[in-house]
Here is the input.
Amino acid sequence: MSDTPNAPETAQLMEQILYEVKRMVVGQDRFLERVMVALLAQGHLLVEGVPGLAKTLTVKSLADVVRGRFKRIQFTPDLVPADLVGTRIYNQKTGDFSTSLGPVFANLLLADEINRAPAKVQSALLEVMQERQVTIAGETHKVPRPFLVMATQNPIETEGTYPLPEAQVDRFMMKVIVDYPTDDEEYVIVERVTGPAITLNPVATTEQLAALQAQCREVYVDPSLVQYAVKLVSATRTPDKHGLKDMGRLITFGASPRATIGLVEGARALAMLRGRSYALPEDMVDLVPDVLRHRVVLSYEGLSEGLTSDALIARIMKHIPAPARPLEADSKRA
Here is the structure.
């Protein structure tokens, strides 16, 4: 495979991966695109949607296509951190301790209904999501590369759930809302599920996927786009400085620098998915709601007015325009 980000082999490989996954998953194009963005940008995904929308199927299908290890953890109130990361086991015959590694040692990890476990269990993922490693009894173990955590939440039932710690939420690059399929898509879903079984063909390896991640870091991002990301994130913290004086009372906490990094890395990955070696303003604009919605914490006043973080983000984006395309700006000046 060529080292250049826009090599024909790269575009062809990503097209084959998406084609194979789409043979199994009907619709959900935007969700699948976000999963690929998170995978290329080495981020993690928080997904909110009702049961039965192919969230698990999408990740499992992707793992099969790239020959990766897939693990699913069903979060429940009785779960303990050792059930995730692993523990030390005493062998009575030899008198020695051995390490039993947990299900986090996979390429694609699905944390199903993550908010059904207490904070101490959720926090067990903090180290592995940031450092890609787990420490058990003072010994560090690296997880396989590439590594993606996709956590799901059910928006319907809130009884018996625990809010995610802010440190945990901030480690997710994006929060994606998955909606119901259209009538036409649901018709195809029923036909496909009730018809002959579909066998996916592996078209890539985890080594090739790691090479794609390295190539993604080479996609060019114009300094004006980075400045745009900084302004958007700064406006969530100090709206007054950006001419949004009435918004300060509606927001308790804004986004962290991880949001700015997520916007830039996400724009790179989306540009690469779209067959370019450079990011355009629309690449970043498309990702802004997904990157910011779980990081903007509304005040009681904002909640009492029935506002959502998405509504405030849309107001910020309307006030802070995206930079012009470089070529278009040059032609206008000419």
